[in-house]
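ENTRY TYPE: protein
WANTED: fold as C-alpha cells:
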Amino acid sequence: MILFQRLLLPATLAALTFVSGCNRHDDEPRAIDPAALARANAQASQQDEMIRSQVSEGSVLADGVKTAMAEFNANRGYFPPDNESAGLAAAASISGKYVSSVDLGAKPGTITVTYSNSAPHKANPSLAGKTLLFEPQTRPSSIEWHCKSPNLKQKWCASSCECKG
C-alpha cells in the first residue's frame, strides 16, 4: 500500500489521503479525521513527557554522586577513578525505578547514568541501554557540571543538557 498525504488547510488539520492497491480500483481522495490526527499528536506528546520524567530520575541520582566527587576533589585535588574510591556504593546499587546504575570510571570525574527496562527497572524501551553523562569543569573555587548524552534525544533531556541521540 502506498500512502501519500497532502495538507490542504494546515490550520484546520484538513488532509487528503490517496491510497493505491488497497481493495480500491481508483485513486479517489479520502478525508482523514482531524480529531484523529490531534489525538495521535497528543499521544506522542504524552509519551515524550513520560520519557522526559524518567530521564530526570538519572539527574536526581547523579546529584548525590556529584557531592561525593566534589568533596573528594576538594580533599585530594583530583577526581576518584571509581565508585569505591569515592566512598560510594557499587554502580548497580545506585539505581532507581528507571536507572540501572550510576558509575564513575569511564573518564576521570565523569558520572555515567545508565537506563534499563530489564526487571526490576521499568524505563521506557526507548531508554534501554541509553546513558546520561555529567562531566566536571573545575573552577578555582567550584565545580560546574556539564550534562550530555550521545544517545538520548534532546526532547527527552533537560534544556541544560546537550543530547545528540
